[in-house]
Here is the input.
Amino acid sequence: MITATNITKKFGRITAVSNVSFELADGASLALWGSNGAGKTTLIRCILGVCRFRGRASIGGIDVRRRGRHARALVGYVPQELAFHDDVRLASAMTFFAGLRRATPATAARSLAAVGLTGHERKRVRDLSGGMKQRLALAIALLSDPPLIVLDEPTSNLDAAGRGEVVHTLRALKQAGKTLIFASHRPDEVISLADRVLVLERGHIERDTTPAELWPTEKPVQVVRLHLVMASEADAAETLRRAGHAVHLNGDGLCVAVARDRKAEPISTLARHSIEVRDIEVLDDVRFPEVQP
Amino acid sequence: MTALTATPITAHAAPARSFAGGLAAFARREFRDAIASRWFLLYTVAFTVLAVGVSFLSLSGVGSHGFAGFGRTAAGLLNLIMLVVPLMALTAGAGAIAGERERGTLIYLLAQPVSRTQVILGKYAGLATALVCSLCIGFGVSAGVLAWRTGGVGIASYAMLVAFTALLALAMLSVGVLISVVSRRSAVATGIALFVWLALVFVSDLGLMASSILFRLRVQEIFGLAILNPMQSFKMAVIVNMNASLDVLGPVGAYASFTLGRALPWILAATVAAWAVLPLALATILFARRNSP
Here is the structure.
């Protein structure tokens, strides 16, 4: 159980987070939703106990302010972008974090394998792509097999393929029983991963809701798979997202969540932007399908 | 999508590493980073070349048979040490925390199951080990030259010089880490460290002379003020250790020798040791109480 009670964080006169309270059961997933500056990152830092704040936060009954080290042992943290010494080799970074997290070298190797980074151990952090860095952060977060994974906009710096890989991994973690807290700007991620959504605005909780309630046009929703010319998939995905659609690009077409009575809407949106749709497939599953990396 | 069984979030799920274990992990990483860095190589080579140069100069005046070669070299090295070692230690310490903060890596490190005390003490321990190793290389090569040319005459006072120098390095490193904690940027921290170095090496002597004339300070007051500067304490400790009389320092030295007698070297060493402990303790407290990373 994660408990946050009246968390307030000020930077000088600016209140970044104001009286935020919530509880999250083990195995559940919570999305933090809001515009830039809404307080998502600050709230995550408070929950991790890495900055001073008023109020109380506990992870598994452990107060993050009084016993932060022990509370953080239960958490795997994935930042927006991995910030680590650029000169360090991937194997050396894993050894260091394995040392901090009581993980063995064998566990470190398994974590790397789990995110598909086996064979890259000799590479320096600066030579990794954005997606590889994010997978490294995920591997580090999973080193001690923590029950709670906290992610701060984990896909914001990734391309469509990288996003798909990360979301796929997170879905697997959720299915394995991990508790997730993540900040995101992407409706498709929230729909795909979250049980609950905290909508933050200027540090306050505006709504404590579910993805389906937050995007009512997608309830009841269906997923349509659009087949396009490969080169135009990324542009199409961005166009649809800008139009308010939840989109998933998975290498086998473009999956779009649509209202049941407005299935043609994405096609007309793309037509307005001169993007041709070659084929359309209506999927039965309400949720987004598994992403094939 | 929903997990069959949630992974319970309890303290047993992923216990934190011991305090000493986490500290040692940071110390190892800092040591590895330091010895791989350019500053370490540059300072080590510079100090070694200068120390060997002073050794040869000391020997050249006494012929190849050498008269108290180690003792003479220790005296010759004193001024070199007072210039170079504080500069090495202050600049190394200044980058310790401010550099991590500027790169954005500090927040990621603090999100791991470690306390701020572990981070700062671990970094200090790693840098201190690297600094002492650097000094030992310089002193070691110099000692090799001296032993080859003169045998082991005066080696005890030389060994004490090495010990006092290591203590001075720890003291200045401690001041450097304190500067690093209160500085937002590493460039600012380095600037402040250079200013402190100038103040301790040059300005404090001039200030003491001016104060003694302006305020007609008594000899015991001048001595008290002088040993507040760790460089002066170090210098006096080394001179006393070489069985030389502090009379060379004028009335203040004579007063110290006369009133403190055998306790003098211990008092001087304790003063330098206090400079190693107190700034680090203050840095640890300030770092632990920082509002944000």
